[in-house]
Amino acid sequence: MDVDGEELTAQETALYDRQIRVWGADAQRRLSKAHVLVYGMKGTVAEFCKNIVLAGVGSLTLIDDRVATAEAFSSNFLIPPYENVYSGKTLAQLCCDSLKDFNPMVRVSVEKGHLSTFDVEFFAKFDVVVVSCCSLSAKKLVNEKCRTLSKRVAFYTVDCRDSCGEIFVDLQHYKYSKKKLDETVECNLQYPTFVEAISVPWRALQLRMSKLYFAMRVIEKYEEAEGRRVGEVSIADLPGVLKLKRELCTTQSLSESHVPDTLLERLVTNTTEFPPVCAIIGGILGQEVIKAISGKGDPIKNFFFFDALDGKGIIEDISDSNGGR
């Protein structure tokens, strides 16, 4: 990510001294000039925002017009657990107020509106766009708008349900460097869009593919088909979800065993986030965004899955040229 600008100030150098020792002054300079947009303030995204604000990102813009409720602070630590404080305020406003206290050198602001209402030029103001709590069609739309721009905008989706989580990454054509023995190696990666990745036929994917990938696609398609908001499914929807799974597996020529009923049942039984998993997924996402901005270190390509049941974090490379790994 080419971020030009002046050198770090003396105040920034003093505040971020430990980080500069880890990833260097150039990486910190790029981070301090980067602009990040986040849509959907749930627990996982709150953890991510906290991480990049503490790391010293240049600016962070939040979008979430939903009015805060008592349920919201069960997984979002940025929301004060007092009704007289959160009553009537949006999630974005409350999170913005809390994040400003973490690092006064980072500009944190709020935008109002839905993803579908913002034009392409709106996204041109940012270097990184992270979306959560949005529909399948909204993910496709924002990714397409980011791709339309002449500048490269890193695009991420993140979703956490119960004790499972998923991150998708699109860095377009990405160049970065990494250390190999005593030399620095320049690397190039070509990323598919979200649509291209999820359009790869299931039968073309490797047999050991993460089962969570298939389960998330089933839930995603069910919510879209039924006109539900993200996270609105419940145990009452399980028969419909299982029916859709069977239909998709038949269409995709995939054995139904690759999408366990028990996993789908977990995802619809408890759609709220599990705070410890929020911390893990939010930490991974923060790490990946810092990599993308600094241009240092191997980034995820292009899906990351985590399931607390087995404690495994799995990276899957899903594209037309690669059936997953």
UniProtKB/TrEMBL annotation:
An example of a Gene Ontology BP annotation on this entry? protein sumoylation
Pathway entry: Protein modification; protein sumoylation
Instruction: Tell me what this protein is called.
Output: Ubiquitin-like 1-activating enzyme E1A
Q: CDD domains under this entry?
A: Aos1_SUMO (cd01492)
List, alphabetically, the InterPro entries matched: ThiF/MoeB/HesA, ThiF_NAD_FAD-bd, Ubiquitin-activating_enz
Gene3D superfamilies for this protein: NAD(P)-binding Rossmann-like Domain
Concerning SUPFAM superfamilies, the annotation shows: Activating enzymes of the ubiquitin-like proteins
**Keyword set, alphabetical order:** Acetylation, Ligase, Nucleus, Ubl conjugation pathway
| UniProt source species | Lupinus angustifolius
